């Protein structure tokens, strides 16, 4: 698969942008396990043009993450264009390695975003969606991609026609989540419509499928049954960043990768924790790792008390001590990833 001049090879696996999850430390770990393309947490166009320090901080990327995209969202055309131009200048404005592409978020379903017409709220205004996309494509030199959903609700699944229109204004790739906005994350993702977009003879750009890819079997089916060019993995990577390696192992060898032992997960958690503290400092680095640490060890027997300590401890040294304790007590165990999944709703 190729996006602009970015060559991603056959069967690429992409890490979805997720607010408060896909920060630089998490991306570091996902890259280690084979994510072919990653994105920043999504960035508010309104926040950027107000020179919001928090929004600009999300622009910072690192050479080892490449290729990487910056994702922006909003509903005001002029603000979105300005945000895209700023994203193109990310290295200059915020430092770091900069972006390889700009992705437009027309897919986020949460009320505080979709309710005001941004994210998947834009599915109610396809004309405006196409207009904003066209303006951004014309305003920047980097490849522009779009992530969206099937439609607003069950009665307005417009993605087949919309995909053509987005392609016609110049996007370089399209990611489709197989649910409507009104579904949020409930029910099963409808991959048949993603497949219909891919099989449309008018479509020439890469089509990336997203939704419910929780294991290697579903990934293989998505490639073989629906013909997508790539797969984007979101929630299933949370607490399980090794899912990229599991899928690649299965696609290459036709066998399941042996589940990680708790000891291996402890080693991983320590690397992730160290990167978080390195990038964000002790206080923030510890706080923002709590959501990850508890999920790494989901399913362990008699873990409730230790989990509570993991998500309340403020001292980096004590967090490491807790991880060492987990290794001593449960280190040899290999929880079955098919029975105990950190995949969350």
Comma- or semicolon-separated keywords:
345 residues; alpha/beta; nine-stranded parallel β-sheet; two-stranded antiparallel ribbon; 14 helices; 11 strands; disordered C terminus
Topology:
Blueprint: E1 2-3, E2 6-7, E3 13-15, H1 24-32, E4 38-39, E5 43-44, H2 45-49, H3 53-57, E6 68-73, H4 77-88, H5 90-94, E7 101-106, H6 111-114, H7 126-139, E8 144-149, H8 159-168, E9 173-177, H9 191-199, E10 207-210, H10 216-226, E11 230-233, H11 243-253, H12 262-296, H13 304-310, H14 316-330
Parallel strand pairs: 3-11, 4-6, 5-6, 6-7, 7-8, 8-9, 9-10, 10-11
Antiparallel strand pairs: 1-2
Helix pairs in contact: 1-12, 4-7, 8-9, 10-11, 12-14
Folded structure, characterized:
- By secondary structure, the protein is an alpha/beta fold.
- The protein is built from 14 helices and 11 strands.
- The strands form 2 sheets. Strands 3, 4, 5, 6, 7, 8, 9, 10 and 11 form a 9-stranded parallel β-sheet that branches. The chain has a two-stranded antiparallel ribbon with strand order 1-2.
- α8 links the parallel β8 (144-149) and β9 (173-177).
- α8 (159-168) crosses α9 and α12 (262-296) packs across α14.
- The longest helix is centred in the last third of the chain and has 35 residues, at 262-296.
- The radius of gyration is 20 Å and the shape is globular.
- The model is unreliable at 338-345 (pLDDT under 50).
């Amino acid at each position: 698969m190729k996006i602009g001049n970015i060559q991603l090879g056959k069967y690429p696996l992409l890490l979805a942008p997720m607010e408060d999850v896909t920060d630089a430390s998490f991306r570091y770990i996902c890259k280690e396990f084979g994510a072919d393309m990653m994105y920043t947490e999504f960035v508010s166009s309104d926040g950027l043009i107000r020179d919001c320090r928090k929004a600009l901080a999300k622009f910072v990327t690192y050479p080892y993450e490449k290729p990487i995209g910056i994702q922006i969202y909003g509903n005001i055309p002029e603000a979105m264009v300005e945000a895209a131009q700023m994203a193109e200048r990310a290295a200059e404005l915020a430092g770091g390695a900069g972006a390889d592409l700009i992705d437009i978020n027309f897919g986020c379903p949460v009320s505080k975003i979709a309710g005001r017409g941004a994210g998947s709220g834009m599915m109610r205004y396809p004309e405006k969606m196409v207009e904003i996309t066209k303006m951004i494509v014309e305003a920047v030199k980097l490849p522009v991609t779009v992530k969206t959903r099937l439609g607003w609700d069950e009665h307005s699944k417009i993605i087949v026609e919309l995909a053509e229109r987005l392609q016609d204004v110049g996007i370089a790739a399209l990611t489709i989540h197989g649910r409507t906005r009104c579904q949020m994350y409930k029910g099963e993702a409808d991959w048949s419509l993603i497949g219909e977009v891919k099989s449309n003879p008018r479509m020439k750009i890469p089509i990336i499928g997203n939704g419910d890819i929780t294991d290697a079997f579903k990934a293989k089916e998505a490639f073989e049954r629906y013909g997508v060019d790539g797969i984007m993995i979101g929630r299933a990577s949370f607490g399980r960043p090794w899912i990229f390696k599991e899928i690649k192992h299965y696609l290459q060898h036709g066998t399941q990768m042996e589940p990680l032992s708790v000891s291996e997960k402890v080693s991983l958690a320590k690397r992730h924790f160290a990167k978080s503290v390195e990038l964000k400092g002790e206080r923030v680095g510890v706080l923002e790792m709590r959501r990850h640490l508890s999920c790494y060890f989901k399913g362990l027997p008699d873990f409730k008390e230790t989990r509570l300590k993991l998500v309340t401890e403020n001292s980096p040294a004590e967090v490491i001590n807790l991880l060492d304790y987990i290794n001593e007590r449960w280190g040899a165990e290999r929880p079955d990833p098919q029975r105990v999944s950190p995949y969350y709703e």
